[in-house]
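Record type: monomer structure entry
Structure origin: computed from sequence
Chain ID: A
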Amino acid sequence: MIAEVMKMREEENKRSSQGSKVKRFFKKRWVFPAIYIVSAAIILTGVLWYQSASNNTDKYHYKSTDLTGKKNPPAVEVNKSLENFKMPVANAKSAVIKTKFYDFNAKAADQEAALVFYNNTYSPNTGVDITMPNGKTFDVVASLGGKVVRVDDQDAVLGNVIEIEHANGIVTQYQSVKDIKVAVNDVVKQGDVIAKAGQSLFNEKAGTHVHFEIRKDGVAVNPTKYFDKPVSALLEDNVSNVKKTMETPKSEQTELDNSEKSKDEKSVDSDKSVEDGKSIENDKSSGEDKSTDSDKNTDGNKSSGEDESSNSTEKTNS
């Protein structure tokens, strides 16, 4: 009996010592954070394993159940479609538009202000010329993200040219630049510095400036109309109508039509006057013929009257 009691006490002592060890272990500060980290790692590993297992379904080459055989279109970058046209200068608030875009539908005074005089001829401005109030050079930045497709640093007339190609047939062009920092096939982001503003022979009056153009399918559009607007605004516009106005301005076309009509009317009036003159001459000639005939008739009547009078006198004498 005593031995059994001793054994029971020893077991109780062992249990109590083990319990105290466990309590001491959990009382340590790093135990619970370690447990949380280990459990989080286990959960994350399970999630990643599940995702990888679901992605491995492509190895079975499942075919599309679409009856038309169409496949999902490639994904389009959302950021590209959400980009707004930006003024191609680092400090847009201080920028000044020196020469505006020539709009064929604008007022005569605005059209006159948008003409550029070079080589003794006036040419419509196909973009906008941007300057700074202090007249000094400034950083020229990309209006949109895209790929550089043209860099011409030997054009003194236009003052060097940079073209950046974008999606859907849109191209932005930068003229009158210097210290060019990009090359052909470079991919630039919106706002990247591509050059410094310079000067050109084509528009010397503008001084230090950058000539900026936006073209859609080769047709120049008014950049100020699309500043701070998304690219979709240009895509929704009917550029074909813009192209028609660029080729044959409405005002000039109407003037040409009116001039042609006036010429036709003048020619018709001249033809009528000639015909009237001819008719008058014919009337005169017919009138003269009638007058001669009437004179002949009067002469004949006179001679017959004289004959009758002579006969009557002879009868009286007899």
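Annotation 1: The CA atoms of residues 151 and 162 lie 5 Å apart.
Annotation 2: The chain has a mean pLDDT of 75.
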